[in-house]
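Tokens for chain A. Residues wanted.
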């Protein structure tokens, strides 16, 4: 509770600080600290390497369930808030769902703050990896996992720093919807509940990447959003599509192989039973 209260105070203080720059012609959020993604990238990558080595010959840490539950529940709540806030602010500002030119003025300040909160949460999401390393789930700390976290941290920094207005919110809206589904599943899994959409999570992520790729391409071509930032999003979505599709195919092949092995085992057991009769 103390950590949550402290985090909310940080967000409130940041909002007040940005509010003072609301008339900045480059946008209030252009003052976001450039050193943050640099520092966090170094801390994250060195932490992953160092902790993995540290636990190499040690037992996995136990007693993390309550911490993980609190974290996952927080992620559900913050992402639900982002989805609702994005939609409400778009409506309040008189914007359409897509096709909005970058507006760095006071009218888009509140929408820009929601986008900034979404970006800021990318640093909190690095805890995903911490839980894996502490429990020695090293097979989950793949190139895809680490690359995904670092890339999105930097991509959202670019968006917030250089173009936090207009359609900048759209990718955050799509990502927040997926994260509501994903962290709800994680929370339910910790409670031992079955999740009806578990098998569709990777498919939903692939759909998200396709939608965001189409949107960023369209925004670049029509000039609805700065093309340089659109290129960053295109790179993110293409690389995510390639890596997640590869992961999905490998997981599907593994699942199919397991089902085939189970089927063969059942047939062998039935044949043995018939022979015994």
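Reply:
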């Amino acid at each position: 509770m103390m950590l949550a209260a402290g985090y909310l105070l940080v967000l409130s203080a940041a909002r007040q600080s940005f509010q003072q720059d609301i008339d900045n012609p480059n946008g209030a959020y252009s003052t976001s600290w450039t050193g943050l993604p640099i520092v966090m990238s170094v801390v994250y990558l060195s932490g992953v390497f160092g902790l993995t080595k540290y636990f190499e010959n040690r037992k996995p840490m136990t007693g993390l369930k309550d911490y993980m539950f609190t974290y996952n529940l927080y992620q559900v709540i913050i992402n639900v808030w982002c989805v609702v806030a994005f939609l409400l602010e778009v409506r309040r500002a008189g914007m359409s769902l897509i096709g909005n030119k970058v507006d760095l003025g006071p009218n888009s300040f509140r929408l820009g703050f929601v986008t900034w909160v979404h970006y800021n949460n990318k640093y909190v999401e690095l805890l995903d990896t911490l839980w894996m390393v502490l429990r020695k789930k090293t097979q989950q700390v793949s190139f895809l996992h680490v690359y995904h976290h670092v890339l999105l941290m930097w991509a959202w920094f670019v968006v917030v720093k250089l173009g936090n207005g207009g359609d900048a919110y759209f990718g955050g809206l799509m990502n927040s919807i997926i994260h509501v589904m994903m962290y709800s599943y994680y929370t339910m899994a910790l409670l031992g509940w079955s999740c009806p959409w578990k098998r569709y999570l990777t498919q939903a992520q692939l759909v998200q990447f396709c939608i965001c790729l189409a949107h960023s391409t369209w925004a670049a071509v029509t000039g609805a959003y700065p093309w340089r930032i659109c290129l960053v999003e295109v790179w993110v979505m293409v690389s995510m599509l390639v890596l997640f599709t590869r992961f999905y195919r490998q997981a599907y092949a593994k699942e199919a192989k397991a089902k085939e092995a189970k089927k063969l085992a059942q047939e062998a057991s039935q044949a043995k039973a018939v022979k015994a009769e």
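The CA atoms of residues 231 and 237 lie 10 Å apart. The two ends are 65 Å apart (CA to CA).
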